[in-house]
Design goal:
0% strand, 75 residues, 4 helices, mainly alpha
Amino acid sequence: MARSKSGNASALKRYWGTGAGAARIRWGTPGDWTRCNRQLAKYLGPRAKGYCARMHRARTGTWPGSKANTGMRRR
């Protein structure tokens, strides 16, 4: 049986969303999207920005950069 080149998407989502990868990103804190992008850019290239935005929305309930984002730094 041939092995899929796409990998196990659900395992990756679990790792970066709630597992050890999520602990490195610290979802819901200032800079979480930036940390995600830096970590995943090694593996996904420019697609990391969109993936991290969707993961941010799933984990925190807001899009990165939104004024409703509780993790935004106060200026």
